[in-house]
Every structure is written in C-alpha cells, then in structure tokens.
Amino acid sequence: MTQTLTDAVQTQLDGTEPRYWPIEKYGVIGDCRTAALIAPNGSIDWLCLPHFDSQAALCKLLDADRGGFFQIRPAEPGDSSMRYLPASNMLETTFTTEGGQLKTLDFMPIRKRHTHEHVLSALAALAPSATHNQRAHLEREVGNDVAAAHRIDRIVRCERGAMDVSITLKLTPDYARQQAHVDLQPHHPHTVSAIVHDGADHYFVFVAKGMSGGASTEALAPFAVNTLQGQLALTIRLSAQQRVGVALNFARNEREANELLHRLLVRDLDDDAAETLNYWQEWSDLCAYQGRYANEVLRSALALKLCVFEPTGAIVAAPTTSLPEDIGGERNWDYRYTWLRDSSFTLQALGLLGYHSEARDYFHFLHDLRLRNGMDFRVLYTLSGETGDAAGEHTLSHLEGYKGSHPVRIGNGAVSQRQMDIYGELADAALLYAQELGYCTGQRARESPRDMRDVISVVADYVANNWRTLDRGIWEERGPERAFVYSRVMCWVALDRALTMTQGHASHDRRSHWSSEAEAIRADIHAHGYSEQLNTFTQAFGESAVDAANFRIALVGFLPPSDERLRSTAHVTGRILQGDEALIYRYRPASDQQKSDESAAAGDGLSGKEGAFLACAFWYVSNLALMDQVDEARTRFERLLRYASPLGLYSEEVDPSNGALLGNFPQAFTHIGLVIAARHLHEAEERAERRAKGDATDTQ
Q1: 178 and 194 housed in the same domain
Q2: Whether residues 298 and 155 fall in one domain
C-alpha cells in the first residue's frame, strides 16, 4: 500500500513558544520498545528508555521547568512544519528562516530480525527438564521479530542558505528526580561526544558528528560546545547541503556506554535511516485494507504498531502518562501498561487489516503468564507480565503536570480492580485469531503448540460460575462496584466464544454448563439491563444512566443489528451523550454541570469533568453502519477525522469547546475505533451498492 506524505502544517517559532505545546502538535516516533514525543520546535519532550514503562529521562511534557528535553532547531526565528515519510513512523521537520531552510529526520532505528531455521529446531528439541521460564525466554528471543538499538537518530540537513543550528540536551533521569552529569569526551572539531549519567544506573551516550553528503565534512565550521549544570549545548554553523548526525543511545552500564560511544563514532546513520524506512514500509505494505480512507486507516495501524512491545508481545494503551482528560483536573492516568481489554481490541483491529503476528506474540505473552484459574487474570500487567505492586499507583508530587494538571501518576490503581468485561474481550480476540489463521491446527507448524482453547476454557469456567459478580466496568470507575450491563454482555461473549472454539472437542464436558449460563446471562440482561422508559440499555442494572460502552453490544453479536432494542439503544444513547459535531461522551459524570434531563448522571468516584471520548464516537459510527444508515455514518466519520492531529494521530478525548486533544497520546483505543469504524462503513457501502444494483436489475 502506498501513502502520500502527511500534509505539513506550519507552526510559527518566534521565541514566544508556549511552555506547554498543545498535545495535537506533537509527533511520535518509536521502535516497538518505547516512543518519543517531538514538538514543532524540534524538542523531544517525552522519552522513557529503554522501554515504555522505564523511568522517564526526558519529561518536559509534564514539567516545563524541571523536565528534560532534547532539542534541535535553527538559532533564529522562523516557521516549522512536520510530516511523516511515506508509510512510516519516521518524522521529518522542516524549519524555514530568513537565512535558509533546515530539515531534521527523527527516528528510532528498527529493522526486521532474520530468524535462522537451526535456532528454531534447537528450540523444538529443548530437553524436557528445561523450566517453563527458560523455554519462554528462549522463544521470546527467537520470536522477537524486530531488532532495535534503544537509540534516537536525528539527521540534520541544511537545504538552502546558511544558519546556526542550536542543539540542547537536558537529561533528567528518573522523572527529574536525579541530577545528570555530562562527561564530555575528547572530540574532533566536527564531532562532539559525551556520556551522560546520574552516578547510579542511568547511562546515555550522545554523539553529534558531521555527515558526508552534498558537501564535504571538512568544510564544516568547528562545533561550539559547552556544558552547564548537567546540560549539554552545541552550536553548529551549516551551509547548503551540509549535514550533521546526532544520536542519543541508552546504555545499561558504564562499560556498555563506552562500547556504544566508539560504535556510534563510526556508525553511518544513513544506514540506520534506510533500514528503518524499509522496515516500516514493508510492514505497511502488508495492510490488507483497500477501502475508502485508506491513508487514515494506515496511519492508525502505524500508531497501533508503535504501541506494541516487541520483546514480550505486550501492547501498551499509550506511551505516555498523566496527560489530562481535563486541563487542571485530577483525571490523569498512566497508560504505559498492557490491559487485557485494550490489547484484545488492538489485536482485533490489526487482524482486520491482515496483521496477525502481533496476535501470535500477545497470546504467547498470555500463555507465559501461566494462568490456571480465572481469578488469576488481572486487568493490566507490566510489559514483562508482572502485576500487583509492580504496577502499583504512585504520585510524583515534584512535577507540575501538563499545564498544571496534577497529580502526575506512575503506575495505575486499576491493577487491583475487578472488571468482568475483560474475559469476553480476550475470548473474542482469541476466536477471531483462531478463525483467521487456524492457530495451532498444524498450519503454523514452526510455532510453539500453545492451544488457545486451554486459556479460553479457564476463562469460560470462571465466567460461568462468577458472572453475577459486581465490578467496576470498562471505564475503571473508582466508585462502588455495580452490575454493569456491558460487563454482563461481555461475560456472555466469553461463554459464546468458548463454545465456538471448543466445538467438536469431546474433552470439553463443561460445554453444557457454559451454554446454560450463557442463556441465563442473556435473560438477566434483558430483564434488568434494559429500560422500557428510556428505550435503551442502561449503564448498570436498576439505574437510568446511559453508557456509550453499550454501543459495543452491536459489535459483538449479542443481538442482531435489526433488533429494535439495539437500534433504539444506539439512537437514544447517541442523543443523550451527543456533543458538538459528531462527538460523543462516554457517560455524563455526576460532577459534570452539563447533565441531561433525559438520563441520570453516572457517579464514577472522581471530581471534575472530562472531554468527549473519541473511541465512543467511532463506535457510534460502527453502529450506524451496521444498521445501514450509511450517509449519517459517513458524515460522522468524516467529521471525526477533523479532530485528528495534523499528523493523523489521536489522543483519548477531545475538548468540544476548542477541538484540543486531551488524555494520553497517541491513544490506541481511539485508533482501534477508527480502523473498525472504517471497516464497518466500507462494508455498509458495499451492501448499499449491491442493493442498488439489485434494484436496477429488477427494474430492467
């Protein structure tokens, strides 16, 4: 699949830039281990190394004064524009000043790892005495499809004219709780290198050097460099066609830092760029979607791929923490973990586009957790599969927070919650994957024979016996547990998918129990989850508040799209939760002053308000498409596309008053919703075309 460059949007840089850039102004790069956010002024304001959930080394995003940054820009004022190279996650920023034009290409090196057949054979022949952890570790290493360098490369080129280029590195290890020390190394006039550390266990290697190209390296003016209070600053004079390569590499210890330093001094960053572009474009070419909005779908797929943690197969909800859902409010969460729900949704979206290796890796990740009972499942895990205290929630009181929004949180309190919907989402993703590829049926002979039926049977046994349990629902409310309608629906989904996956397997003698409990769930939902007064499914049993999560009932097959209760739920819920344009709120918080007279507010245990929820708006589009209301679905979908960032990225929410993006960024949930809505809309348009052709034939 080909894709044009994202249309560039100019930003004026006149020395009066904001302390905090709007979230939608950021570009994102990554290497399937971590990700960095880059502002229009060439400043990397968020970076955790080496992994998504590592301690942040650059966090200006959450404290404009204390937080670190890594900036490259012209010394004089001008304009900038950002765009991605075609079908990639490589970001190009163009700076235009009176003195000339400068381009930076920012990326994290990544390439396809080639697995050798003899290694796979050796794995298959592992001695029976090998422990489970040994097998899992070796298989992850072999099955790890992507090689990464834990590095950011920045290639700077003067396109025309001449200008001074300012490079500033202010590292603030451990969320700015540690002081950085810069050990400047002996350097050539056209090379600056340093090892930056905190005196403990955080090491980073910095190199800036002239690059060959349209002009001789020897023609460069000597680099001017100084260090002050742990900050490294360079000024480089560039003329037309001259280039400089800048790299920042993570190191595990001092010895590795010195080794990496010597390698980077001779490393050709052009090779990194070629390998990385090839990786992303080859991955993009696998996208099977050929319908309308193909560019937007591919950009969403690329954003989702950035959220995959390749070493284990885990998938983060977003690569950031504590970007607020309400500026100045407390709804600030850490999304750098893998949620069973969000990951299952991601696999479904990528699967629809023809990407299945991510599902393989994720189900291997789950298998390695060795879950033997439904009670063992947790809402979220760290990227290495830990839970409990490892993901426990803490606040960083020394950080101001984005635009003064605090507290800044690391860890997530939802780790200890009970959320019954996760079982259905996991079972649904497993079935879709099994149907697409015949998982573990002999078609994938080179993979470990991990039968997903075992995991899903554990899920079904637990759900069949515990579906009446109260929980905190898909939105992870911090109030009391309730009987959420959507949670009950997903319990039904868990049993329904388990029955399908185990069909024909005589060993599953519990199937009759699963079947009877599935029917009991269905009857319970119809009896207690639907309001005849409102003509809609409600948020929870015995309540009158509505919930946009119920848009998903149509997407999981609990009822056919023609069912009047389902159609009424879509229209009534959509009307009550409607925002400006095509925006939808997920529910009306009790603290929100703009409550509906038609429906009760929902108490979520938090103060303040929140923005419109973008994923819910895309779910509504899917509902309309499934009901063959194609024109309205298309209109809403295209209006939602306007809320994307200039680079085609979305956060979790949007402020209806000004269109500003809110919440962690980029947010997998929203991009999943876009992909699935585009698919439903495409299928609805095809049905409409077939009907039109049939009608035309009948009249002839």
Answers
A1: yes
A2: no
Q: What is the identity of the amino acid at 386?
A: E
Distance CA 169, CA 246 (A): 11
Residues 29, 108: contact at Cβ < 8 Å? yes
- What distance in Å separates the CA atoms of residue 229 and residue 59, rounded to the nearest whole number? 17
- Report yes or no: 236 and 157 within 8 Å, Cβ to Cβ: no
Tell me how far CA of residue 595 lies from CA of 426, 589, 599, 681, in angstroms. Answer: 34, 8, 8, 31
Question: Which domain, by its residues, includes 82?
Answer: 9-16+71-109+149-283
For the ranges 1-15, 351-365, 551-565, the lowest mean pLDDT is seen at 1-15
Phi, psi of 569 (to 5 degrees): -60, -45
Residue with tokens 């840089």: 13
**Number of helical H runs and strand E runs in the chain:** 16, 29
Rounded to two decimals, the pTM is 0.92
Q: Is residue 560 part of a domain?
A: yes
DSSP three-state, residue 213: coil
Looking at the domain assignment, is residue 40 inside a domain?
no
Residue 118: CB atoms within 10 Å: 8
**DSSP code for 598:** S
| Residue type for position 202 | H
Strand 69-74 with 43-48, pairing:
antiparallel
- Nearest-Å Rg of the Cα atoms of the chain is 26
Both structure tokens of 599: 């429906």
Which phi and psi angles does 135 have, rounded to 5°?
A: -60, -45
| 147-167 pLDDT tens trace | 889 999 999 999 999 999 999
Q: What pLDDT does residue 74 have?
A: 96
Give per-residue pLDDT as tens, 191-217.
999 999 998 888 999 999 999 876 656
Both tokens assigned to 321: 């923490």
Asked whether the predicted pLDDT for residue 139 surpasses 50, the reply is: no
CATH assignment of the domain containing 548:
1.50.10.10
The 10s digit of each residue's pLDDT in 517-527 is 999 999 999 99
**pLDDT value at position 693?**
80
Is 59 among the domain residues? no
Beta bridge partners of 181: 197
Q: Give the Cα separation of 640 and 587 in Å (integer).
A: 18
